[in-house]
Amino acid sequence: MTLRLLVASGNAGKLRDFRAAATTLDGGVTVDPLPGLKEIAAPEETGTTFEDNARLKAEYYSRFAPGELVVADDSGLEVDALDGAPGVRSARYAADVGVKDLPDSNDNSDVWNNMVLLRRMSTVPFGQRTARYRCVLAAAQNGETVLTATGAVEGEILLAPHGTGGFGYDPLFWLPELEQTMAELDLVTKHGLSHRGRAFRELLGKLR
After folding, report:
1. CATH number for 155
2. What's the Cα-to-Cα distance from 121 to each of 63, 172, 182, rounded to whole Å?
3. What Cα–Cα distance (Å) separates residue 37 from each residue in 11, 50, 93, 139?
């Protein structure tokens, strides 16, 4: 029997990560975006933790697909020298300080977020720039959370971006054991160790 999961996200990078994680299993899992997602008004993310927001979004969006398992995530970067920031504000880090993207067809929010992060870490020396990507996934059905799963990957923040792949803070997120940033990894390697991939594999294991 095929397990069908609807992902409440229009982010192509996230969908790619989830589908890649599903292909590492022995089949029987399909991952599709939630139908009509663009026409659904997004809920306000009022949670103070990744799990709060993941649950909130999964429960909200599952009401638009009765009987289906709907998966939502909240994920981001936690920097130790910044007391865990940007955390749940990772996607809005620059906007929170008034740096907003131009109203055109190009989304440069990642560039501004990275710029603000580098500025706030300008006095933090090597050896104290540890950080992690964290992802919490929630699966909900008919407005109620069924279960959650968590994944994380440890790294360090560089002084300048390297690599052109990935998205978000990937060009700044250095993996010492691989001597590459997340943005420099090939897709197979990235999907094998990404925080979203780890959370998704845990989620699938629990659902099965």
Report:
1. 3.90.950.10
2. 41, 12, 19
3. 11, 21, 24, 16
Q: Are 129 and 149 in contact (CB under 8 A)?
A: no
DSSP 27-72: S-EEEEEPTTGGGSPPPP---SSHHHHHHHHHHHHHTTSTTSEEEE
Please tell me whether residue 96 adopts helix, strand or coil conformation. Answer: helix
Q: Which among 170, 162, 201, 165 has a CA at the least distance from the CA of 186?
A: 165
Q: What does the alpha-carbon distance between residue 55 and residue 179 come to, in Å, rounded to a whole number?
A: 35
Exposed / middle / buried, residue 113 (Cβ in 10 Å: 0-12, 13-18, 19+): buried
Instruction: Classify 155 as helix, strand or coil.
Output: strand
**Which two tokens mark 102?**
């131009």
pLDDT of residue 208: 73
Which active-site residues does the annotation give?
74
Please tell me the pTM assigned to this model: 0.88
The C-alpha atoms of residue 185 and residue 12 are separated, in whole angstroms, by: 17
26, pLDDT greater than 80: no
Q: Give the separation between CA 129 and CA 118, rounded to whole angstroms.
A: 11
> Which range of residues forms the domain containing residue 8?
3-207
Count of domains forming the chain: 1
- What's the CA gap between 190 and 12, in Å, rounded? 15
Q: Tell whether the model's pLDDT for residue 105 goes beyond 80.
A: no
Cα three-residue angle 166-167-171, rounded to 5 degrees: 75
